[in-house]
């Protein structure tokens, strides 16, 4: 029976902490958007077109050649 003298106040303290955390989360807009985070992993990313793999880069001119052909 002496255990109840400890467990009842500890349980009450845990409940008070849980209620305080719930109201803190509600006041800090933690429950505003519950649907979007669940859908974000399922959405496809838009692909960005990159350079084609079969095209070679244009040769760059060296600063001393100045476009002259040998």
From TrEMBL:
Q: Where are the transmembrane segments?
A: 6-26
Give UniProt keywords alphabetically. Answer: Membrane, Transmembrane, Transmembrane helix
- Keyword Iron, does the record have it? no
Which region ranges are annotated with the description Disordered? 42-70
Checking NCBIfam families in the record gives: ccoS
Q: By its UniProt entry, which PANTHER family does this protein fall under?
A: FIXS PROTEIN (PTHR41532:SF1)
This chain belongs to which protein, by name? Cbb3-type cytochrome oxidase assembly protein CcoS
Q: Which organism is it from?
A: Frateuria flava
């Amino acid at each position: 029976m002496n255990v109840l003298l400890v467990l009842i106040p500890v349980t009450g303290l845990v409940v008070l902490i849980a209620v305080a955390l719930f109201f803190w989360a509600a006041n800090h807009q933690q429950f505003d958007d519950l649907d979007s985070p669940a859908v974000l992993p399922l959405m496809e990313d838009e692909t960005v077109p990159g350079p084609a793999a079969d095209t070679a880069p244009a040769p760059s001119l060296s600063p001393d050649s100045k476009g002259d052909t040998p």
